[in-house]
User: Which sequence fits this backbone?
């Protein structure tokens, strides 16, 4: 099972490290290895969130996610994206930006750093909306009840997550403008850039997430109708299909996954510039890491890990909330990537540990595997949370 799921990741790792060695010797080999670890550590929460969405897709779309999706993730976000933001911020053509990345890496890094406020605002707002929509939802299984219960009650207010996100964006933009003014000039342009980029991230979340939710709901309705039709078809001998709607629903879920991956990869791409300026090594290291994140996502789905360890999804969403705040804070302050990665790992680790405690409590109470989902009235549900 492990080899089947991670086989391509292992193969790409070997090829990528060999390519790095021939490109720049042992130093390049080490840089690519470090970037791979960086990407995996920063994106582990991404894999958990992706798994929660991917398990709703059939085997065909899971394969699409691992093939076309990985091409988008590696070539789109880890190779093309750094070039695009340099081209846009410096008003250069794509070819000129690529030439700059190879022939003047210091200038290339400087241009990417200049573009960081807009990147951080867009990604931060997108991820913040994911966290807010999760934390404001009333759910049967709760991890940190002292936080989640009151917030779930507040979540009954319409559009609260959007209002909170806009308030956070306004505070972020005002803080950045103040900092820029203190250093002399340019604060209006930078503040407006943060606002526009943040609003763009918010709109992207609402559009893609809204379409995904709409078609997912339609798919569930269609599946119920199909189930009823199939029961009736068994009596008449007439098979019933509903492929078109399922495909449309899966497409928007796939689109949502790709935008989500793009937002998660912002910190990895920006963080990579702290390690190397060479776009080839960056693409190799982050690309290999992205492969492992994809494989880990599928592994979590096929093993049913999220069903067995019910607080993992909570921990991942808290990690998303932390990452969104960190991205917004980096508009003004520099934060070490190690801290960013450790926060996510610690939160997910704690949620995993809480899930283990919950499972042991269920087993001790004689609940068995059948209660693994944690019904609202179960003893485990009442006593196993934090």
Assistant:
């Amino acid at each position: 099972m492990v080899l089947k799921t991670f086989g391509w990741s292992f193969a790409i790792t070997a090829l990528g490290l060999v390519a790095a060695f021939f490109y720049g010797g042992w130093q390049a080999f080490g840089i690519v290895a470090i970037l791979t670890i960086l990407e995996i550590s920063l994106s582990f929460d991404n894999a958990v969130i992706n798994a929660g969405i991917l398990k709703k897709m059939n085997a065909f779309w899971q394969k699409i996610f691992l093939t076309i999706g990985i091409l988008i993730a590696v070539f789109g976000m880890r190779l093309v994206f750094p070039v695009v933001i340099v081209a846009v911020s410096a008003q250069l053509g794509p070819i000129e930006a690529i030439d700059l990345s190879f022939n003047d890496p210091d200038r290339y890094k400087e241009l990417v750093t200049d573009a960081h406020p807009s990147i951080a605002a867009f990604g931060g707002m997108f991820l913040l909306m994911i966290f807010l929509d999760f934390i404001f939802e009333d759910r049967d299984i709760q991890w940190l009840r002292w936080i989640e219960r009151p917030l779930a009650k507040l979540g009954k207010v319409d559009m609260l997550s959007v209002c909170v996100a806009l308030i956070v964006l306004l505070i972020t933009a005002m803080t950045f403008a103040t900092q820029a003014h203190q250093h002399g000039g340019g604060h209006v342009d930078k503040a407006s850039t943060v606002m526009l980029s943040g609003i763009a991230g918010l709109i992207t979340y609402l559009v893609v997430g809204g379409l995904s939710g709409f078609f997912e709901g339609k798919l569930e309705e269609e599946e119920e109708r199909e189930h009823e039709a199939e029961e009736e078809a068994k009596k008449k001998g007439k098979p019933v299909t509903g492929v078109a709607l399922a495909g449309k629903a899966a497409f928007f879920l796939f689109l949502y996954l790709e935008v989500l991956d793009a937002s998660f990869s912002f910190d990895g791409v920006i963080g990579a510039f702290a390690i190397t300026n060479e776009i080839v090594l960056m693409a190799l290291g982050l690309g290999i890491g992205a492969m492992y994140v994809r494989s880990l996502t599928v592994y979590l789905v096929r093993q049913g890990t999220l069903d067995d360890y019910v607080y993992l999804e909570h921990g991942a969403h808290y990690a998303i909330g932390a990452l969104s705040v960190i991205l917004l804070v980096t508009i003004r302050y520099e934060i070490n990537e190690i801290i960013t990665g450790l926060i996510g790992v610690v939160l997910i680790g704690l949620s995993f540990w809480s899930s283990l405690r919950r499972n042991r409590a269920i087993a001790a109470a004689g609940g068995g595997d059948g209660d693994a989902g944690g019904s609202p009235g179960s003893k485990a549900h009442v006593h196993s949370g934090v």
Summary: Residues 180-188, 240-245, 368-384 have pLDDT under 50 and may be disordered.
